[in-house]
């Protein structure tokens, strides 16, 4: 496989918006499908610049295939090698892979809370986990659609995982969806 070429399988195997598996067929215009439905295409367009400046300004961005990091030209990226990272603008413009992700560190940490959304409502155990979170920089749905990424300002510290909750503030890659949610709306069950 060439370093700049997409993986051997169709790079658009998953919807760029909701991560649902895509049919193998091409779009009506003969292009590889990127979205599973017009609804997902519209959502992606509306959320294209939904990241706060504090997150977008960091030069810690990569492309992703699934949850694996790649450079903007398709080489594997490393959380230990800043030479493989890019600006958000450059990562967003690249057509390689399924989307973007960010390397944690340099004051950025993330709470990754798995399977905490049940019918649009926050599970009771997740409310307790979120009570530990300070002032979030950005909150989004994770790739699964039923989890959350809560980005926070954080000093470098050893990461940890307990049950469905993981925290990391350095040396870790997070696949970013851009599907912003409000913790207040989640608390009311409106997300």
Model description:
- It is a single chain.
- The protein is an alpha+beta fold and 191 residues long.
- It has one domain.
- The chain is 17% helix and 24% strand.
- Strand 1 (61-65) and strand 2 form a beta hairpin.
- Spans of at least 5 consecutive residues whose pLDDT stays below 50 are 1-12
SS element count, helices = 5
Report the sheet with the most strands, covering strand number, pairing sense and barrel closure.
5 strands, antiparallel
How many β strands by DSSP? Answer: 11
Name the strands of the widest sheet in spatial order. 7-8-4-10-9
Mean pLDDT: 84
Task: Tell me the distance between the termini.
Answer: 41 Å
Domains counted in the coordinates: how many?
1
Order of helices and strands: HHEEHEEEEHEEEEEH
Feature tags:
Bifunctional DNA primase/polymerase; 191 residues; alpha+beta; four-stranded antiparallel beta sheet
């Amino acid at each position: 496989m060439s370093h700049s070429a997409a993986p051997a399988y169709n790079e658009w195997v998953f919807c760029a918006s909701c991560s649902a598996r895509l049919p193998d067929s091409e779009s009506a215009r003969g292009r590889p499908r990127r979205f599973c439905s017009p609804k997902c295409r519209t959502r992606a367009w509306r959320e294209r610049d939904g990241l706060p400046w504090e997150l977008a300004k960091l030069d810690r961005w990569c492309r992703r295939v699934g949850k694996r990091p790649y450079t903007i030209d398709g080489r594997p990226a490393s959380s230990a090698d800043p030479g493989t990272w890019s600006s958000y603008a450059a990562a967003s413009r690249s057509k390689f892979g399924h989307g973007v992700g960010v390397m944690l560190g340099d004051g950025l940490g993330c709470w990754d809370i798995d399977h905490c959304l049940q019918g649009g409502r926050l599970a009771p155990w997740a409310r307790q986990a979120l009570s530990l979170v300070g002032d979030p920089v950005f909150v989004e749905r994770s790739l699964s659609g039923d989890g959350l990424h809560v980005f926070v300002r954080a000093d470098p510290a050893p990461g940890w995982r307990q049950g469905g909750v993981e925290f990391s503030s350095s040396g870790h890659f997070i696949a970013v969806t851009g599907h912003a949610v409000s913790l207040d709306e989640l608390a009311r069950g409106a997300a």
